[in-house]
Amino acid sequence: MTDTVAAAVDVLRARALEGVAHGFLGRGGGVSTGAMAGLNVGHGSGDDPALIAENRRRAREAVMPGAPLLTVYQVHSPDCVVVAAPWHDEARPRADALVTDRPGLLLGILTADCAPVLLADREAGVVGAAHAGWKGALGGVTDATIARMCELGARPERIAAAVGPCIAQPSYEVDDGFRARFLERDAACGAHFAAGAAGHWQFDLEGFVADRLAAAGIARVERLARDTYADPARFYSYRRATHRGEPSYGRQISLIGLAAAS
Fold first, then answer.
1. In the prediction, which pLDDT does 5 show?
2. pTM, whole model, 2 decimals?
3. 3 state DSSP class of 112
4. CA–CA dist 56, 78 (Å, integer)
5. Res. 7 pLDDT band, cuts 50 70 90
6. Domain containing 131: what range?
7. According to DSSP H, which parts of the chain are helical?
8. How many structural domains comprise the chain?
9. Tens digit of pLDDT for each residue in 178-230?
10. Dihedral sign, CA of 231, 242, 89, 55?
11. φ/ψ (deg, to 5) at 15
């Protein structure tokens, strides 16, 4: 990949993960066109597979050049898998989070309003990535990710986490039934809902995910505070595409890995 192309890929980094190869990527620097113009990496988007493959290559090269990129078939679950070796995209497991202690592997999570979460215990040499939509977040996908990291030698108090670009509270209107699901789990969840139009609420997905991480013992949690819905030039958004009546939508990717020994 040329320096020009590398520079064009839009990569946000978290201070909490400094020193770890990672990035929350936007749509800048890709080759897709039309409604999915940019760095669309979603196999399920209906985009040209050749363009998706090139976008994935560019994403990988922007964060960990030459590393195999591992993603999962995301199903809005709380399930997390341990990655010990590369797999083919066609054989990717159904899950919503990945962890590894193997250097040289790049973990990726796709989002288009859901919250991407990247985690690292530098001392243990363990990293993780989680796709936290409201279903997965409520079901415990971040808790499962932390638990699997601990199986590999991580400790919660040493793990740093960052919550990347996702739909923000002002853009995320939900109804009474949605809010009730959270209140049934814990009345304290009400703190993440602000009153909106009659019978509706504004949900703070980023805040909810960050609080789940803190409750699990993660001492350092960074919020990037970027609204995917409100920034069409930089991010893909499922809800925005739905409101506009667009036939499909792109997906951005968030990546983390352990550098291979030189």
1. 58
2. 0.96
3. coil
4. 25
5. low
6. 3-168+204-257
7. 3-8, 49-63, 134-139, 141-151, 176-185, 205-215, 238-243
8. 1
9. 999 999 999 999 999 999 999 999 999 999 999 999 999 998 999 999 999 99
10. negative
11. -60, -35
Q: How confident is the model at residue 90 (pLDDT cuts 50, 70, 90)?
A: confident
Smallest Cα–Cα separation from 16: which of 252, 201, 152, 218?
Answer: 218
Q: Does a structural domain hold residue 147? A: yes
Rounded to a whole number of angstroms, the CA Rg of the chain reads 17
**What is the C-alpha separation between 111 and 197, in angstroms, rounded?**
27
Q: Following CA atoms 145, 58, 90, 131 in sequence, which dihedral angle do they give, to the nearest 10 degrees?
A: 20
| CA-based nearest residue to 166, from 106, 236, 233 | 236
Tokens of 143: 């808790």
200-203 and 193-195 as β-strands: parallel, antiparallel, unpaired?
Answer: antiparallel
**CATH number for the domain that contains residue 30:** 3.60.140.10
pLDDT (tens digit, 9 = 90+) per residue, 19-77? 999 999 999 999 999 999 999 999 999 999 999 999 999 999 999 999 999 999 999 99
**Type of residue at 106:** L
Helix axes 205-215, 141-151, angle to 10 degrees: 40
- Is residue 30 packed enough to be buried (19+ CB in 10 Å), middle (13-18) or exposed (0-12)? buried
Tell the residue number behind the tokens 């936290």, with chain if given: 132
Predicted confidence (pLDDT) per residue in 125-180, tens digit: 999 999 999 999 999 999 999 999 999 999 999 999 999 999 999 999 999 999 99
Give me the count of residues in the chain.
262
242: amino acid identity, one letter: T
